[in-house]
Amino acid sequence: MLLAHLSPLAASLFSLLAIGSLLLAFVMLGSHWLKNYLLAFTAESWLIALLSAAVGYYGGYPELYLIAALTAFFRGLILPYLIWRIIIRLNVERELHVVLQPSSCMVLGALLVLFAFVVSDHLGDTLGLGGTIVVLALTVMLSMKLIGFLMLAVRHEAVSQVLGLLLLENGIFLGSQILVPGMPMLIELVLLFDLLVIVVSFGVLVRYLLVHVGSTSSRQLRRLVG
Fold this sequence. Notes:
Number of strands: 0
Strand content: under 5%
Largest sheet: none
Mean pLDDT: 79
Number of helices: 7
Distance between the termini: 46 Å
Helix content: over 70%
Structural class: mainly alpha
Low-confidence stretches: none
């Protein structure tokens, strides 16, 4: 497990980038506008790319420079562009079917972060890593995963669903950069290119919903049951 003992500068930089990524997840929770979701995801992806480069520099993992470049290119440019084109074609600007209001989602998200911190702090104490960057990395990773699941549960627009899934995956990717930066590059590349498969599949699903159902709400998928 990485970097339990870092210089103050490196620990502060990692903490800033990780917390910034988590705050952008709350931007997605606190809005109904699809454009805000996409902008927050794009900014979050760039922060994760910077984090990968920083871990590569301070941790002595030069292969992470390539991962950082690919993350910025695919997550920060290609995927947002593809999703933006889908939003434009669908002519859907905001979440229409609301399960929870943004304020309620923010409160629930804060509770999930608190839960993630309690779990991470306990794990850190168990591993003898309490008070290190490892606890923060675990907290942010679990928080982003839980917030991603929350978005999947309370957002019904197809675009919101895929961005919730990408947010969940961003959390896993962010945590892996800090906790296990020596993970084989092949696995890192598979995670990156897997996102393209997700977005392509999402585009096919949205077209099916729009042509056969006349809506982009995932609630219409209930018709496939039974």
